[in-house]
Design a protein that fits this description.
Among the domains are: 41 residues, Arc Repressor Mutant, subunit A, CATH 1.10.10; 44 residues. It is mainly α and 132 residues long.
Length: 132
Amino acid sequence: MPVIILFDSPLKSCNMGASKQLSDDLKTKIIHHYGLGEGYKKLFKRFQLSVSTVRNIVRKWKATGTVLVKPRSGRPRKIPNNKGRRMVRMVKNNPQTTSKDLQGYLAADGVAVHRSTIQRNLHKERLYGRVM
């Protein structure tokens, strides 16, 4: 009878999520110390980052001359995050609030949106039943 050996590759079983973006201040410090002649190994120990992270920051700086994050592509949101959170609070405090009321609230703050946009944003928060 043949023996079958099963094993998991550490590369396949690794569920890595997205990491947080490093601050521009930290990246600037890394470039400053790199400019003073410190190598990758000293930098990764000093800032407690991986060697590849330090290398990627330096590589980006050499290629572009900056370490600042470029603006993301895509259409900007019609309803800013702070207004959307305020809308959700208003609806949770008063469930009888209509999308027309919310439309007036946003218009007073200089944000002109259609009621379907308001409803779509509320549906993402699992809030339903806003009528005109």
